[in-house]
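Re: that backbone. Tokens:
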């Protein structure tokens, strides 16, 4: 069967890498893809939100299954459009993707179904929002309701900061995504991500991962899209995973079914592990980036039947296997990221780096030109490795990083430090 993957990041490179290994996969295409994806799939210059062009391409190439990577086409209804055209795909409908596309929608669903999350209020007027801020005090969290490319969350240390955030969001800083705000209680604890496949009715838990959002070592500096990740996440004990499924993921899937908007795809729960147990921070309606990269490296079975079962409604008959290994990914970014950075700088040494034991290099923001690779984005490479322990996976990943010749790039040197500290305590 011919397959089309939609997207152009490290997540999509990892998905293509895993799908290409499937005996069910005929010709593999990726739209638009990137410089690394071109090695495992044919890249086609289509925009993920140009639905007409995507449908025409699917017809021309006789594609049997489409895997939608990023949130934007999901929230805009690509899965619905493909359904209307009779084309099977992996990813939720626009209505179901509201779990990611509207924070207020998700908070209301949690309130209605008793799903543990931070106390909150939702407002479209500044006076109401500021009233709740005055009542709850700081620290407090202010969020734009809609998709704001990861920038719509403000952790306010003071009431004044929170009030300013309200004025900025409702004043139009995030456009339509900020027509409404959510004001919520600040949660304390350790964060983890939990992933589960859903077919509308059944849920198959995948695994947990942790990422590092801050740009510099020791979790310093501004927030980014993620500078590295690892899986499993030691904080997520088997007991906690059972609680997350029972208290958070399963009630959500039931609630969505009840609302007539069954969730099909991967549900990515951002969690805070508080002293009172796991609480939901947010949902995403797709794989995390770079968490997907470590999940695909750990998976010890064919990914394609799992993705197809989400669409077919047959997840209850599916099973999966994990390698008994840790996977860890280090993000290499262009100097200056998450602020301004230079583009079109050449990256060398990728073949040597990729030959290190247990290492795969996924491209997140590159282009290939005449056999050479150039950086085109902020986050550029995901140097990913497996190992018996987090420490071993980390050592392998950094050995590969050190063989990459890219003077304009940088990375954190401490990805996985929390898990490694926990491993040391166990010895
Ligand atoms: P979100 O986009 O909702 O995942 O928020 C981005 C980041 O903000 C999260 O990964 C957390 O680090 C932080 N955050 C969001 N909501 C809260 C909260 N209620 N309490 C503490 N931290 C939060």
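Recovered sequence:
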């Amino acid at each position: 069967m011919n397959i089309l993957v939609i997207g152009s990041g490290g997540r999509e490179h990892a998905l293509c890498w895993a799908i290409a290994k499937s005996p069910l996969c005929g010709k593999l295409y990726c739209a638009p893809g990137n410089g690394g994806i071109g090695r495992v799939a044919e890249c086609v210059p289509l925009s993920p939100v140009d639905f007409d062009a995507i449908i025409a391409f699917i017809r021309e190439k006789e594609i049997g299954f489409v895997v939608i990577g990023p949130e934007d086409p999901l929230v805009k209804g690509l899965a619905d459009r493909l359904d209307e055209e009779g084309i099977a795909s992996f990813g939720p409908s626009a209505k179901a993707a509201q779990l990611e596309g509207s924070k207020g929608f998700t908070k209301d669903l949690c309130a209605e179904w008793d799903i543990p999350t931070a106390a909150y209020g939702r407002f479209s007027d500044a006076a109401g929002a500021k009233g709740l801020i005055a009542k709850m005090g700081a620290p407090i969290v202010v969020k734009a309701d809609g998709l704001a490319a990861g920038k719509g969350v403000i952790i306010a240390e003071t009431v004044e900061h929170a009030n300013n955030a309200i004025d900025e969001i409702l004043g139009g800083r995030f456009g339509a995504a900020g027509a409404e705000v959510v004001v919520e209680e600040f949660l304390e604890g350790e964060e983890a991500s939990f992933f589960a496949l859903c077919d509308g009715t059944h849920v198959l838990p995948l695994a947990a991962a942790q990422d590092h959002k801050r740009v510099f070592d020791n979790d310093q500096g501004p927030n980014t899209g993620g500078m590295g990740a690892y899986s499993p996440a030691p904080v997520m004990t088997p007991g906690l995973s059972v609680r997350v499924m029972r208290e958070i993921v399963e009630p959500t899937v039931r609630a969505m079914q009840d609302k007539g908007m069954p969730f099909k795809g991967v549900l990515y729960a951002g969690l805070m592990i508080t002293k009172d147990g796991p609480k939901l921070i947010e949902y995403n309606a797709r794989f995390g980036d770079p968490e997907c990269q470590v999940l695909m490296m750990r998976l010890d079975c064919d990914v394609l039947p799992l993705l197809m079962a989400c669409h077919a409604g047959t997840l209850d008959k599916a099973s999966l296997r994990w390698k008994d290994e840790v996977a860890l990914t280090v993000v290499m970014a262009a100097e200056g990221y998450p602020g301004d950075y230079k583009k079109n700088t050449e990256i060398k040494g990728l073949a040597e780096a990729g030959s290190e034991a247990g290492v795969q290099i996924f491209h997140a923001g590159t282009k290939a030109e005449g056999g050479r690779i150039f950086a085109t984005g902020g986050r550029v490479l995901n140097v990913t490795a497996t190992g018996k322990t987090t420490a071993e996976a980390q050592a392998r990943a950094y050995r590969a990083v050190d063989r990459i010749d890219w003077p304009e790039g940088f990375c954190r040197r401490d990805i996985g430090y929390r898990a490694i500290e926990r491993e040391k305590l166990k010895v």
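Residues 77 and 94 are 5 Å apart (CA to CA). The longest strand covers residues 264-274.
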